[in-house]
Specification:
By secondary structure, the chain is mostly helical. It has a single domain (about 1-220), classed as Tetracycline Repressor, domain 2 (Orthogonal Bundle). About 75% of the residues lie in helices and about 0% in strands. The protein has helices at about 10-30, 40-55, 60-65, 70-75, 80-105, 110-125, 130-135, 145-165, 170-195, 200-220, and strands at about 1-5, 195-200. A two-stranded antiparallel ribbon has the order 1-2. The model is unreliable at about 1-10 and about 25-35 (pLDDT under 50).
Length: about 220
């Protein structure tokens, strides 16, 4: 394995294609904004814009324009950008939770379940790099104003905590080890996505699985 500078062209090209595809897919469903749950539709649009252009492009007024609604309608759901980011991050954690749940289905308790959860974590990060970056960035809910975000994080983390408990650890030590495990996995995923840790797409899954096994053995 070799370490390369950031900005790997092939990785950038793949991510660019993925983001453009998601943005085009959302634009085709723009008409849904005029019907049903506006808040949910706005979050979906924000996720699409986030993946296409990055978090710095998210704007309540831009989303209102994308939705074809008056900006006052958007402010009724999201009074400021922080509340929008919190809702987008919450949706990210719920989507990650679903991805992890798919991966661990049918896996034996303990190490194999944790490895599967780690693979689900990485695959979500790879497929949603900007959303993952928002979730893994500076904490949004410093003042505890967004309980839904905390609940979504806790629910997802519980799937990583369970294998440590199943291996014989008590709940509190298991919580600490879960935090360490997920922090390490977050860093590894980020280094791969940024092109600093060169692991080919074909080998990434096995690389992450082996890394998860080493982390589990080291943290028990």
């Amino acid at each position: 394995m070799r370490v390369l500078p950031s900005g790997q062209s092939r990785m950038a090209a793949r991510l660019g294609t993925l983001m453009a595809s998601k943005w085009k897919k959302w634009k085709k469903t723009r008409k849904t904004f005029r019907h049903g749950n506006l808040a949910e539709a706005l979050v979906d649009a924000a996720v699409a814009r986030l993946e296409a252009d990055g978090a710095e492009t998210l704007s309540l007024r831009e989303l209102a324009r994308d939705a074809g609604v008056n900006h006052r309608a958007v402010y009724r759901h999201f009074p400021d950008k922080l509340s929008l980011l919190a809702q987008v991050a919450e949706e990210g954690w719920r989507r990650m939770g679903r991805r992890v749940r798919q991966q661990i289905a049918g896996k034996p308790a303990g190490e194999q379940m944790l490895v599967a959860a780690g693979i689900g974590f990485f695959l979500f990060a790879r497929d949603n790099p900007n959303l993952f970056g928002l979730m893994a960035g500076p904490r949004i809910n410093l003042k505890g104003a967004f309980p839904g975000l905390e609940a979504a994080m806790t629910e997802t983390m519980a799937m990583f905590r369970k294998p440590f408990i199943d291996s014989g650890l008590k709940p509190e030590p298991a919580l600490v080890r879960t935090a360490l495990f997920m922090s390490a996995l977050q860093g590894i995923a980020a280094q791969i996505l940024h092109g600093r840790l060169h692991v080919s797409r074909a080998k990434a899954r096995d690389f992450v699985a082996n890394t998860c096994k080493m982390l589990f053995k080291g943290l028990r």
